[in-house]
Amino acid sequence: xxxxxxxxxxxxxxxxxxxxxxxxxxxxxxxDAINLMSETRGQSCLLPxxxxxxxxxxxxxxxSSCVLVMQNSQLLGIFTERDIVRLVASNKSFxxxxxxxxxxxxxxxxxxxxxxxxxxxxxxxxxYRIFNLMIKRSP
Length: 139
Description:
three-stranded mixed sheet; CBS-domain; alpha/beta; 7 strands
């Protein structure tokens, strides 16, 4: 059965990618990485029914649900919101902890050239039980 859903084409999937992910070094303090993740960015929405009024609504969202841990342009690990929950549940003190000590490694990656349909990515999410998939640019 062929699915011709335009919402699942490569162009639409490409728009869902974060082309400027947050990055930190392994020496970054955990609390600083969490603060970076929790910074909000405002978005302005103009509702159709308010067009004549010229009113807009501001929507705040978290900057990112993860940070990539990089050293000399090399991807070493990833730290996600799920990791924050895990650390809080373990009652681990965040004082003085560096992100390199608590990051997940290796990072599951997917080559952008192979990013043709959503099902390939969904397979990786399910197989590795992850919520963030790093898409590597093709050379």
